[in-house]
Amino acid sequence: MTTRIGFIGVGLMGHGMAKNLVEKGFPVIVMGHRNRQPxxxxxxxxxxxxxxxxxxxxxxxxxxxxxTGSPQVEAMVYGADGILANARRGLVVIDCSTSEPTSxxxxxxxxxxxxxxxxxxxxxxxxxxxxQGRLNTMVGADNKTFKAILPVLQGFCENVFHVGAAGAGHKxxxxxxxxxxxxxxxxxxxxxxxTKVGIDPRRLVELVTKGAANxxxxxxxxxxxxxxxxxxxxxxxxxxxxxxxYFNRMADAAQMVAPLAATVLQSLRHxxxxxxxxxxxxxxxxxxxxxxxxxxxxxxxxAKAATSAAKTAKAPAKSEKASAKRxxxxxxxxxxxxxxxxxxxxxxAKRPSTTKTAAVGRRTT
Length: 365
Fold this sequence. Notes:
A 6-stranded parallel β-sheet has the order 3-2-1-4-5-6, with helices on both faces. A 3-stranded mixed β-sheet has the order 7-8-9. The protein has 2 domains: 5-166, NAD(P)-binding Rossmann-like Domain (Rossmann fold, 3-Layer(aba) Sandwich); 172-299, Orthogonal Bundle (N-(1-d-carboxylethyl)-l-norvaline Dehydrogenase, domain 2). The protein is elongated and about 65 Å long. α1 runs parallel beside α2 and α9 (168-196) crosses α14 (283-291). The protein has 16 helices and 9 strands. The protein is of the alpha/beta class. Helix content is 62%, strand content 11%. The protein has helices at residues 12-23, 36-45, 53-58, 70-78, 83-86, 101-113, 127-132, 143-153, 168-196, 201-209, 216-225, 237-253, 259-276, 283-291, 299-349, 353-364; strands at residues 5-8, 28-31, 48-50, 62-65, 92-95, 117-120, 123-124, 135-140, 157-164. The model is unreliable at 300-310, 315-323 and 341-365 (pLDDT under 50).
């Protein structure tokens, strides 16, 4: 029997994941959402829509969660019409969110009492790979459960890593994200340092690109930031702050000394406090430059582009004014021409009556 999938969270990542499952033949039920576009697209592809969590849970063999973090996951699990209230024995819940391990451990225990298996399978890569069905996931589950759900995970993942028992996936994801955000924090300070001491950040990019410090993250962030593009890494700054905060809590619970983790978290908090909270992770470069009183890379170029765009926007208005002026002139010319055209007629009217009589005579003959 084909596994029926209930999918909650069809946002930037979830839409691509659910789409791939539908296209690979899985019966998929999605939850309604105020953003109707991804839901309607999935319905056109063959997915069904559930209006309530309970309806989705009762109609599924596997429920996949792809939401922001632990508060949202807990709401789905413990809500009045949530997963726990509607689950039957044998149901599998796969949490693909980046969640807090302590929360995941509690959910695992509570669902187990109801005969439900909880699996943590957080993701790496971006919405682009989600649409392509090429995500990576690290899975926390027992061996039997992992083998059973592997075909489902392969429906939207290129690489599936079984990293341990339930909870291991979320722990490794937090380590991975701390490691990634630590690199971004270093890149941001390095850019600010270059500008502060009078070095063009382009020289830093050229140097690192040819050396051992180069990385995919460096190119996504720094390689595009020198041109004033802070969108190279499609990961929201507020989500990065959330993940590193989770890492710090995990480190505290493990009685780990983690000074760098605290520093990275502080850098993210500074960036958000400075007004970059609605941006992506590379905005940390702009934030560090602002914090140090220097202009971010390519700021003059962006200002020039903005000025050019403003001029372009004004151009149609100027053109319209010119057109109106030309039209007004043309109207004056037309009126003058009409006035001149009347003058011969008046002159003809004043000619001797013999001319008129002759004309009449010619017509009668």
